[in-house]
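Here is the promised in-class demo. Please do not try to memorize the tokens; focus on the logic of going from shape to residues.
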């Protein structure tokens, strides 16, 4: 057991060494800039003069994202249905490097957080048992923290999308009933709401681009639903897919759905308003009420105490 306790400084050095090696190889990979196309052409034509490497100027963000993408390639066969991909899309991270950056942040937190905790506990002269417990806590928190932050981003973005949806539906109804088709209406509404509803306007713009390049409308709507992930937008896309499939008027379906969304939104606000008295009960009971009682009954209590003693 004493041998295990004496290995705490060794573990600190080990984590520090791993961190230094990771930073060294990261910097080395970032410095060397090899173009795979040029390398392949030089291998194909060995008898000719080697082609000069083209200097590519990249930002630090691009270099880091490419580095983590090389370390953590997407090798899953069911990557399209994986939870990490779904969460990244719902959080607004659609680039191919998003998965590598997420896994890289998880790796960094797994290395740095336990190292910092162990170093802090060691210099504060905590016991060996507490240092070992801090190591395990740092590993667990370092693994969970990136996923927790991503989940909060998904919730925050979903709330903003739900808040922007009623105005977008109203403009879609006006555009469709004025004679525009659904594709033209989506494109026009996305252009008009780029400042007031930027998140949903960006998603509608991407949906319009998908339909323009030849993706079927139902598939584009399904992609919109997957990227947003809110119940209101899922219901809207399902309504539009059914309307397109069965020949129902899109304008009428959007108007009905817009009324349902506004009714649901009003009910949610009424529910939140009904919870206010219950939420105010404990602050009033434990913070405000004692202060009022002290002001009102304090002088009387002081006089009683003076008369008794």
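The designed amino acids, position by position:
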């Amino acid at each position: 057991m004493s041998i295990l306790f004496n290995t705490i400084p060794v573990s600190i050095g080990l984590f520090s060494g791993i961190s230094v090696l990771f930073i060294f190889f990261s910097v080395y990979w970032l410095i060397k800039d090899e173009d795979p196309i040029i390398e392949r052409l030089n291998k194909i034509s060995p008898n000719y003069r080697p082609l000069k490497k083209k200097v590519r100027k990249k930002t630090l963000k691009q270099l880091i994202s490419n580095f983590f993408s090389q370390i953590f390639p997407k090798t899953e066969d069911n990557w399209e249905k994986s939870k990490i991909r779904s969460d990244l899309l719902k959080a607004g991270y659609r680039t191919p490097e998003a998965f590598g950056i997420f896994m890289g942040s998880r790796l960094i937190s797994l290395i740095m957080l336990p190292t910092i905790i162990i170093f802090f506990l060691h210099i504060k002269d905590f016991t060996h048992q507490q240092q070992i417990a801090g190591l395990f806590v740092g590993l667990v928190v370092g693994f969970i923290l990136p996923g927790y932050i991503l989940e909060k981003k998904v919730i925050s973005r979903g709330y903003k999308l739900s808040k922007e949806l009623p105005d977008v539906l109203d403009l879609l109804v006006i555009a469709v009933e004025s004679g525009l088709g659904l594709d033209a209406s989506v494109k026009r509404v996305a252009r008009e709401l780029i400042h007031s509803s930027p998140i949903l306007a960006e998603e509608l713009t991407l949906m319009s681009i998908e339909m323009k390049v030849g993706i079927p409308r139902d598939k584009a709507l399904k992609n919109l639903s997957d990227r947003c992930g809110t119940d209101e937008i899922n219901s809207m896309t399902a309504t539009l897919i059914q309307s397109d499939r069965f020949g129902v008027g899109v304008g009428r379906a959007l108007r009905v759905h817009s009324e349902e969304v506004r009714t649901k939104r009003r009910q949610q606000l009424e529910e939140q308003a009904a919870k206010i008295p219950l939420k105010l009960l404990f602050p009033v009971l434990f913070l405000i009420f004692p202060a009022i009682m002290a002001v009102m009954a304090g002088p009387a209590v002081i006089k009683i105490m003076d008369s008794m003693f």
